[in-house]
Design brief:
Chains A, B: GO terms for molecular function: alanine-glyoxylate transaminase activity; L-serine-pyruvate transaminase activity. The structure is a homodimer of 426-residue chains. With 426 residues, chain A is of the alpha/beta class. In chain A, 40% of the residues lie in helices and 14% in strands. In chain A, strand 6 and strand 7 form a beta hairpin. Chain A starts with a helix and ends with a helix. Chains A and B meet through helix 2, helix 4, helix 5, helix 11 and strand 14 of A and helix 2, helix 4, helix 5, helix 11 and strand 14 of B.
């Protein structure tokens, strides 16, 4: 394929940006470089991956992950990193005009360390809102870095009620409140906007930290409008990139709190003191060194963000498509006898589904049969109900590109699987 | 290409393993799977990357990095991760029979956090042997986690003398001694074997920690025979994989020291308490979860380790090839007027070269001209001499596969560049 034909192909899939950027108006697309022979790359045939992350990713993203080795200090690479910083700020990871992104090699978990070691000082209080497994882990992390942690726990399948948050905030002064936007162990969606409202009203100095690992790009987040101080996520879920990149976006208020610490930061690798000048340099399209960034993954992340931000599907449509796919899967599942883990519709995530097995069935009746139909789902994770349910992810390209037929495949595989499992018991 | 033809092609490039494995004798090669159409993938044309990491990587490694999304909990993925753990232990990252590898998403820098937060308790003493920039950073990291750090500094271009190490060890009891095997800022090679001998003789309880980020697979390391307690490295240098994987190998003695801590580990993401059961599970070819591993990068790492461990070039030949390439480059450079940063031949690294510009020349005379010849080198990094020198990496496939002509290209580009620079001054 000629360069111009390739450019035409790409331009058909992209629409002009409607948002403006402080430093650069146009994102460089490394896939559009004449040296990149995208047309030759198609990912290998494989089972459909519909766990709540990692998710299916596009050929373009995988091809970018196979970018030839590049120097992390190269003037060709720096603006690609810079674009990622700009896109993640402007996109729905943050919906902010001035928040500070940190893109660091690591798992999503590293975001907890960043919050615990940069925003909280040893001996300060943290309030963790518990809607599943990941709150316990975040609390554990905060404690390791010296915070005094209280948890407000919802019932399994529920989100913490605002009245309970208000009561806790009135009883004690907290440096941070953390909320898991979508808990990957329960598929429970917390109302982050409402949580932030309560905090701003009752304890306006308290920072609102959102664990958005399983929600960015499938659920709306508005840092500025809602008053969120830190959003932490990872590359391998709604952001449609292989795992290995920790992404944290901090409000300017959070950055000020970090800068006004009275004690030193308690991590080295996750220290914003080290990373802040690096992120600022790359955002200015020039390289700086603290630790070698995951260069190939940054190219892959750039390819995915470009598809998300400039693709023919707008961000609003993207959220709508996630809601639609979620409803279809949940409805189809309930119709044949599965019951959702979330206790009510208003706490159901749109990017994943957690389903109790019908009475008399266990994981081994369902998950291996789905696997035989080339559909890979995830088992239970929440300790109290681990063996009683399973989880389906429906994020990113599986949802946004209906021509793939992924959602149809998941639904029919579920239907056939349960019919077979029922038949085998008779 | 048919599956059998592909298998034949791969078998031509591999020779049988001569080492034995506790759990599995044969490494699975994901590239040999019928579903992988390796024959169609050739990496895009690009400038020759000869910085001291990231380095050039093979098409097989990049194709593995473009592996379709896989669950980190998949029974297909777990043995691939398990193979990486086994290969890194048996290979020249450790040369150990029972040491414990940790493969964690992150930069090489994360290895410093792992050592500082798992092996050293707050208030304990650490001795850092300084042969360049990276010792200062390791010292900084140790201090952040509460260690009392002393440094023994070599002159620029030198390694710390054994007599100085002995004197320091006799003056104070240290929990750890750290040595940078090859300091990427100076290209100085430290004699790790000799350092370990001094420590074992003078202060046998002290742990010997080797920062081997820029030495694994280009310099020999024998953990067991030399008495090394921790080797920390990263994926993007001698190990020939894109950046984004922190690799630490800890001796059983180090693991015991970690397990007998009297205070809690001071990191969450880098905590061996969290990762040890995960590494043990994957080594048993079953998945376990603490934080999502960088799945694609693990496939890429597997592809590279397979080429290193099972390729037609033995590990001994690999070291010899690095020595030969290093000598050729250094000799050619000195012949035309460059002077090496290392002060003597016995402290010259084999995987990289640091060269002072000839009198009257600066970085701008040399580096952009090399770039115009499609040769990407690195600028200076050591603060005291930053503008006076540059650095060339010669590791991995650029050295091991002479048919690429990379080393010839580097040498002739250097020669032409300096001739042009000289001509331009006349």
């Amino acid at each position: 394929m000629s360069t111009s034909a390739l450019r035409n192909l790409i331009s058909l899939k992209l629409k002009p940006l409607s948002i403006s950027y402080p430093q650069a108006r146009i994102f460089r697309n490394p896939l559009a470089s004449p040296a990149r022979k995208m047309s030759t790359f198609v990912q290998a045939p494989h089972k459909l991956l519909v766990i709540p992350g990692p998710i299916e990713v596009t050929d373009e993203v995988l091809y970018a992950n196979a970018h030839p080795s590049m120097s992390h200090m190269s003037p060709d690479f720096a603006p690609v990193f810079g674009d990622c910083i700009r896109m993640i700020r402007q996109g729905r990871a943050s919906g902010s005009s001035d928040a500070q992104p940190f893109l660091i090699a690591g798992s999503g978990t590293l975001g907890w360390d960043q919050v615990s070691a940069n925003l909280v000082e040893p001996g300060e209080n943290a309030l963790v809102l518990h809607s599943g497994y990941f709150a316990d882990s975040f609390a554990d992390c905060l404690q390791i870095y010296g915070a005094n942690v209280d948890q407000v726990k919802a019932e399994i399948g529920g989100a913490v009620k605002e009245a309970d948050i208000e009561r806790a905030l009135k009883a004690k002064k907290y440096k941070v409140v953390t909320v898991t936007h979508v808990d990957t162990s329960t598929a429970v969606l917390s109302n982050v906007k409402a949580v932030a409202e309560v905090v701003k009203r009752v304890s306006p100095d308290t920072l609102v930290v959102v664990d958005a690992v399983c929600s960015v790009a499938s659920e709306e987040i508005q840092m500025d409008a809602w008053g969120i101080d830190a959003v932490l996520t990872a590359s391998q879920k709604g952001l449609g990139t292989p795992p290995g990149l920790s992404i944290v976006v901090a409000s300017q208020k959070a950055i000020q709190v970090f800068e006004n610490r009275s004690t030193p930061v308690t991590t080295y690798y996750g220290s914003w003191k080290k990373w802040l000048p690096i992120m600022k340099a790359y955002e200015n399209n020039s390289a700086a060194y603290f630790a070698t960034p995951p260069v190939n993954l940054i190219y892959a992340f750039h390819a995915s963000l470009t598809q998300i931000m400039q693709g023919s599907v707008s961000l609003e449509q993207r959220f709508k498509l996630h809601q639609d796919a979620s409803r279809r899967i949940k409805k189809a599942a309930e119709k044949i006898g599965f019951k959702g883990v979330p206790i009510s519709e208003d706490v159901q995530a749109n990017g994943m589904t957690a389903l109790y097995f019908p009475d008399g069935f266990v994981a081994n009746d369902i998950i291996p049969r789905l696997l035989k139909k080339d559909v890979v789902v995830a088992g239970g994770l929440h300790a109290s109900i681990k063996d009683k349910y399973f989880r389906i992810g429906h994020m990113g390209v599986s949802v946004v590109d209906p021509s793939r037929g992924d959602i149809d495949k998941v639904i029919s595989a579920m239907q056939e699987t349960l019919a077979e499992a029922r038949a085998s018991k008779q």
